[in-house]
Amino acid sequence: MGEVFAEDDLYTKDGTVDYHNDPAKKNETGTWKACPFILGNECCERLAYYGMSTNLVLYFKKRLNQHSAAASKNVSNWSGTCYITPLIGAFLADAYLGRYWTIACFSIIYVIGMTLLTLSASVPGLKPSCSGEDVCHPKELQTAVTFVALYLIALGTGGIKPCVSSYGADQFDDADEVEKKHKSSFFNWFYFSINIGALVASSVLVWIQDNVGWGWGFGIPAVTMAIAVVSFFSGTRLYRNQKPGGSPLTRICQVLLASFRKFKVDVPEDKSLLYETTDAESAIAGSRKLDHTKDLGFFDKAAVQTESDHTKGNIDSWRVCTVTQVEELKSIIRLLPIWATGIIFSAVYSQMSTLFVLQGASMDTRLGNSSFKIPPASLSIFDTVSVIFWVPIYDQAIVPVARKITGHKNGLTQLQRMGTGLFISIFAMLSAGILELYRLKYVKRHNYYELDEVPMSIFWQVPQYFLIGCAEVFTFIGQLEFFYDQAPDAMRSLCSALSLTTVALGNYLSSMLVTIVMKITTKNGKPGWIPDNLNYGHIDYFYYLLAVLSVLNLGVYLVIAKWYTYKRPVGTLR
């Protein structure tokens, strides 16, 4: 796995590299020599993204003169698009462009979008005219330019999100046990770099936007994104690149059609009779051959050869498929239940930007006895700090100890790691619920129902943020590694994009739960669980609801994980 485009003589038929004839080429490329440029790119890109998006709802309200509901809706629509466009970028990467050129092309689109957004907030004529600090009168053209810039950014991030983590992992050869061990560590430091960027964005850049100006507030992320592009291109000669394997959707459709065409055909007991190329390499560029697995046996019918499978002496790929092609589809199907269990976790994670903020706003936001007030959303910094704290602890302490106990080279398997994160997330919701329970008791005891900020420090929220961050280190990083490792070689970007959709679906699930809960609990004139004045509500019940759903989700996950069948590349030991 992993070849350099300039070295065509190293290519094998499956689009990977054979270093045996020239091992010096392997030593010159990939591994940790190439990764700093990829990690630097990701850190700067995330700093740019969060630096621009964290305060976006306030820009819509204050500069584009939008009502709270409209501003919130526009941010949600844009954020959702940012997690849908990765499906486009991933398809292009796996099918036609490869991950290197996809990242390169979409990064340029990203920079153009960031530059246009900066101009829309700073250049006279493009930026809205304001008669006061928050009284602005944007023209339709000015609003349109802002939204064009934002959706260019959404398109740009669609080519980067699903490819960068996979591209970094491509730098480690799965056939080399030493390099494969380092690949697991790469995913830890990849997520670490994301949170370094997020930490700077949610603190420094938000302050600049509020206190210096939006031109600087958007301009600095634009420059940072340009630095990300430079960082990525700087490592070009060190990268290992996989050739794109052609349209994965076409291959999936071929297996489905061939299977249903042969509905009545029996699969032979001897699975060696199933169709596979005689060459040592796979017929799919960028993919190793896969061994046959026993489950989902219906799709094996696609690899059963019959007389009608040949057209003018050639194999008709719409009638008979290779075992590797069939196993590609099986791998995707096996991933889907694991993928689905990530939606509940993402719903829990989404509370940091919704109910956690509302809960914090109803508490004492002063820093000590000073008059300085902490923006409730800023407490998400403790989530970031938690991730930054736990990543090196996990990589340098937990893994070595777990390795001695389990005997597994990575300490915990990917499924064990994700399950641990799901377990921890339950306690994050319980922590938030218990805090709200005590806050409401305090309100009742002192009759503080009409008080905007109950005299109870907002820093009591720190444990729930810290637990969410800890859960992220196990679940989200484990998910990154799992979807890369278990995805078919020629579909890795697409599977990374699929894993990202759990974030969007988790947000949608949370919104749906809020709608259902409010519809039920506001009957007969009751304020409901989540009223405008939380002192009359019960968001602790909502947290408990998420905790219960998380427990049920963990139970389902454990059943799925127990029966999960790992993919088996030919010639690769597991």
UniProtKB/TrEMBL annotation:
Gene3D superfamilies: MFS general substrate transporter like domains. Pfam families: PTR2. The chain crosses the membrane at residues 100-119, 189-208, 214-233, 335-358, 378-399, 420-438, 458-477, 498-521, 541-564. This is Peptide transporter 1. Its main location: membrane. It is found in: Membrane. GO terms for molecular function: transmembrane transporter activity. It comes from Anisodus tanguticus. GO terms for biological process: oligopeptide transport. InterPro entries: MFS_trans_sf, POT_fam, PTR2_symporter_CS. The keyword Transmembrane applies. GO terms for cellular component: membrane. Belongs to the major facilitator superfamily. Proton-dependent oligopeptide transporter (POT/PTR) (TC 2.A.17) family. Keywords: Membrane, Transmembrane, Transmembrane helix, Transport. It is a multi-pass membrane protein. It comes from the Eukaryota. SUPFAM superfamilies: MFS general substrate transporter (SSF103473). The keyword Membrane applies.
